[in-house]
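Quick start: read one record
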Amino acid sequence: MSDAGLAAATERMRERGIDARAITVFEHYYRQLEEGRTGTIPEATIEPLGDVPRLVDLEVSDAERAAALARTVVVKLNGGLGTSMGLSGPKTALEVRDGLTFLDIIVRQVLALRSAHGVDLPLLLMDSFRTREQSLAALEPYADLAVDGIPLDFLQNAEPKLRADDLSPADWPADPTLEWCPPGHGDVYVALASSGLLAQLRGKGYRYVFLSNSDNLGATCDPTIPAWMMREAIPYVAEVCPRTVNDRKGGHLARRLSDGRLVLRDSAMVEPGEEHFFADNERYDVFHANNLWVDLDVLDAMLQERDGVLGLPIIVNRKTVDPSDKSSTKVIQLESAMGAAIETFEGSRALLVPRTRFRPVKTTNELLLLRSDRFALDEAFEIVETTDHAEPLIDLDGHYTLIDAFDARFPQGVPSLVDCSSFTVRADATFGAGVRCVGDVLVESDGPVTIPDGTVLAEAAGDAVAGDDPAGAAE
C-alpha cells in the first residue's frame, strides 16, 4: 500500500507545482519512514561537544567585518502562524514592544546594519503559503528594503500529510488546506535552490547566509561571524549558548563517535528511555540556538552533487489532520531540522555566543518579559537589557495563553519587572497601570481579581490579593 501512497503523494505535489528537487527529498524521507527510521540518536553513539570557540574571542578587523557583511544575506524563517497563542496570521505580525511587530524590528535591525557598515544587506523571509500575503503587506511601508532586484521572500515547500494507517495522502474536504504541511525548516536549503534564489544570490556575489527564527529578536546579523568564516574557510557555523535548567528541552550539539562529525540532537531525536541523558546540563552544557551561518558556494555544490538531498535526519511528526480536532484522521508529517545540516558539512563549527542572541517568543510568558521594562530597543533596534539582575521566571496560567486574553488582562501594559525575580499568576487577574513586581511574586485567586493602578506586588503578595483586602499586597 505504501508504494501506492508514495505515488499518490508525489502526484499531488507535481499538480501543485512543487519543484522536482523538493519531491525527491520527500521521496527520500518517505522511504526512510517505510523502513522504520526514526531519526533518533542513541547516547552510546555520541559524546559531549567539548570546548568551542567563543564569539567574544574572535579577532577580526572592521574592514574584514564590512567586507564579509557586504557578501552576506539574512534569511528569517517566517512560516509560523503562532496558533499556540491563538493567532490566525503570521506570528511576526504580533506587536512585541514599543508599538512594533517582530517584522518591524527585524527590518529596522537590517536597515541599521546597512547604515552602520555602508553595505546593501538583503533580507529574505522564508514564508509558508499561510504567511506570505500578510507578511509582504507588512513590509510595504519599507520602500527602501528591497536590494538590487532580489525579492523580499521565497516560499517554503509543501508536502501532503500522510495517513498514519497506510501512508497515503490524507483527505480533509472540510478544509483542503489542512491536507498540506511544511516539511520542517530543514527545507530552507532546497527552497533556496528551487526558488532560483541560491543561483541569483551567488551570481550577485553573495557568499554567506545567516539563518534564524523570526521570533528570535536576539538573532541579529553580527558581521564578526562571516568575517571569521571567510578568514578560516569555514563552510557552516552553528551558534550555541550556555545551557540552564530552563533549556533542558532544547536541542544540543554533540560529536558522533563513528566519524567525529558534529550532530544536532533535538528532543524528537532522543532514544526512548534516554531522556535523562538529554536533559543533563552538566554533560551537555550548551544548547543549539538555531542561529546558523552557511557558505552558499559550498551549499550549492552539495545540493548539485546530491540531487537536492542533503540527507538530514528524518523527523516523524505524528498529529491529526486538523490540529484543533483530536478526533480527526491521524497523520504523519515528514520533517527535518535545518540545524541538522551541521553533520553534512565537512569542517562545520560550533560557536559559543552570549545568551543575548537567544530571545525567542514561543509563549505569552516570553512575550510578557520582552514587553516589560527589563528590556529596551537601542538605536540599532537591538534588544538590550535594562538591568544586570538575573531574568525573572515568568509562569502565567491558562487565562493568559491566548494573545487576546493576555492583552485583555494587561490593558495598560505589563507590570514592571526590573526588581522582580519571579512572577507567577494562578488567577484570572487584570492588571492596572503602573503595577510593579518586587522579588518573588505570586498572584493567586479562586475568582477574578483586579490589581489596582500603582500596586507594588512583593513576595507573598498572592495571599493578600486573593483575600478581601487587595491593598494589603501593596507597599
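Confidence is low (pLDDT under 50) at residues 466-475.
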